[in-house]
Design brief:
Blueprint: H1 2-24, H2 26-33, H3 53-62, E1 84-86, E2 92-95, H4 98-101, H5 110-117, H6 122-126, H7 139-150, E3 157-161, H8 164-183, H9 191-197, E4 209-213, H10 222-225, H11 232-235, E5 245-246, H12 259-282, E6 288-293, E7 296-297, E8 303-304, H13 307-319, E9 323-327, E10 353-356, E11 363-367, H14 386-401, H15 404-425, E12 430-436, E13 439-444, H16 447-459, E14 462-463, E15 465-467, E16 471-474, H17 482-497
Parallel strand pairs: 2-14, 4-5, 4-6, 6-9, 9-10
Antiparallel strand pairs: 1-2, 3-11, 7-8, 10-11, 12-13, 13-16, 15-16
Helix pairs in contact: 1-15, 5-14, 7-14, 12-13, 15-17
Length: about 500
């Protein structure tokens, strides 16, 4: 009985805190200092069901020329602003999903608009170059600024790409090239081996592998799909590679009440990693050249790993000669309250490579000079897009100017505290609130409840998303403040009350 009363008392305190937060409007104070919030509505505006009649008509139209089963609603980007997305029917939703976690500064940020309107930048937008053969004269300056602003320590080189999938694809290639170079002792292959690799045979086409984790998502293109294990629909009917798949920890929450269980999860998963590497190296004769892992399994259900787990994973990789690739495509650029999510883990050193995309506006990976190889081995026509690199450069300036990583950390703490209380108050519907910064999630009791909750939230003016089987995914912009968090929590509670 005491525990129940304590829970009620805790809930009442949070309700008071929510009232104070709304009354004094922390968000209004912050909006003076943070760019991009000037044109936002005070609260969501919902005039029709979502999707509304105009969106539904547009969905029917586009279905005649391409698959449209994933379209949620059509967007009026001209009238979207800050943290609010406008749809074709005039609704304005608080967006805590941000184009699948890919917009760092929200919609129509004035500093990004200045980059596009600056006449000095027009030639970059008009003439998309083949960067590998004819880069613009200022490319070194732009990429150096990016490296200085955000590259992990020790990874002093950058390879840009178009998207997250091709970033991982080419990072895999870099791992294999490095691994084979070491195995050959730097020697070149003979002409016969070179001819055989053209038809997928011989020493020049080695039978190597990358270890990945159950629940992982690293992209949908052919190679990385062998390391994606989040949903069957991603892989169905596509031939794949026989590469090792290890279990990833599945923690019980709250963490402080399940220390022993969660530590065993770490140990069991790490033991399986070692066994799989040994099996593929010694029995299957398909050596594990690398390990790819997300700091948080973002698409597969927002599964977290502890600092201990990642520290030991890095140790195992070094002992087994398997290079560590950390995939920060969704977690990167301040989304977790640090520039890179792996910084939460206090690793002895940076990973061997780290991929990025989404909020970075451009795909690619950071690496060290040990991965430098012959020309044309890591190559394609565009190798990214310098126009997007311009946007990234300015985004990094805004992040520094407005202290957006600190804002993310503080807003995230406020948001997660409120989510934990809702999980207590509505424990028959939701549980397991977790997160780093505003990179938050909770689980619903069933997939149907989760899907129904997302629908209810859209109709209450919140654009949100799902991950894994039952997780409710929160991925706001970096200009998301406590005021926005309070609106989200308020609408979430209304939706939960309606079940």
């Amino acid at each position: 009985m005491l525990s129940k009363n304590a829970s009620k008392f805790s809930s009442s305190i949070i309700q008071m805190q929510r009232f104070v937060s709304k009354s004094f409007s922390t968000g209004r104070f912050l909006s003076v200092q943070i760019g991009g919030l000037e044109q936002e509505p005070e609260t969501p505006i919902v005039n029709t069901p979502v999707p509304g009649p105009k969106s539904q008509q547009l969905i029917k139209q586009i279905a005649n020329i391409q698959q449209a089963g994933t379209v949620q609603f059509f967007t009026d980007y001209e009238n979207s602003s800050g943290n609010y997305i406008a749809d074709a029917d005039g609704n304005k939703l608080l967006d805590v999903y941000m184009q699948i976690a890919s917009l760092p500064l929200g919609y129509n940020h004035p500093d990004i608009q200045k980059v596009i309107s600056n006449p000095k930048n027009h030639s970059v937008f008009v003439n998309r170059p083949a960067l590998g053969t004819n880069p613009p004269v200022d490319l070194y300056e732009k990429l150096t600024n990016i490296i200085k602003s955000c590259a992990p320590k020790g990874l002093n080189m950058i390879q840009t790409m178009a998207c997250g999938s091709c970033a991982n694809e080419n990072a895999f290639k870099a791992i294999f090239i490095r691994y084979n170079s070491l195995m050959r002792g730097g020697k070149d292959l003979n002409p016969e081996d070179l001819n055989e690799c053209i038809v997928n045979k011989g020493p020049g086409c080695p039978d190597l592998s990358i270890l990945s984790f159950n629940g992982a998502f690293h992209g949908r293109t052919f190679g990385v799909l062998a390391t994606t294990h989040s949903k069957a629909i991603h892989k169905l009917d596509i031939p794949s590679l026989d590469w090792p798949v290890a279990p990833f920890p599945r923690y019980k929450y709250p963490l402080e009440n399940n220390v022993e269980y969660n530590k065993k999860q770490d140990e069991d998963c790490l033991k399986e990693v070692e066994q799989l590497i040994d099996y593929y190296n010694e029995v299957k004769k398909r050596p594990v050249a690398g390990i790819v892992v997300e700091p948080v399994q973002s698409e597969g259900g927002d599964h977290h790993g502890s600092s201990y787990f990642f520290q030991q994973l890095q140790r195992i990789g070094k002992e087994k000669n398997a290079m560590l690739l950390i995939d920060e495509v969704q977690t990167g650029l301040g989304a977790t309250g640090k520039m890179w999510a792996f910084e939460h883990f206090d690793l002895p050193e940076s990973p061997d490579l780290m991929t990025f995309a989404k909020k970075m506006q451009i795909g690619g990976y950071f690496y060290s000079d040990k991965f430098v190889t012959q020309p044309y081995r890591i190559f394609n026509t565009w190798l990214g897009d310098p126009a997007r690199a311009l946007m990234l450069e300015e985004t990094l300036n805004v992040i520094r100017r407005d202290s957006l990583i600190r804002l993310n950390k503080e807003t995230g703490e406020h948001l997660l505290k409120n989510l934990k209380v809702l999980c207590q108050d509505y424990s028959k519907l939701i549980a397991n609130a977790r997160g780093l910064g505003t990179f938050c999630a909770f689980d619903c009791v069933t997939a149907k409840i989760r899907d129904d909750l997302i629908t209810k939230m859209r109709n209450l003016g919140i654009q949100c998303g799902a991950s894994g089987d039952v997780a409710f995914r929160i991925r706001p912009s970096l200009i998301f403040t406590k005021k926005h968090a309070d609106i989200l929590v308020d609408r979430l509670e209304k939706a939960l009350k309606s079940f």
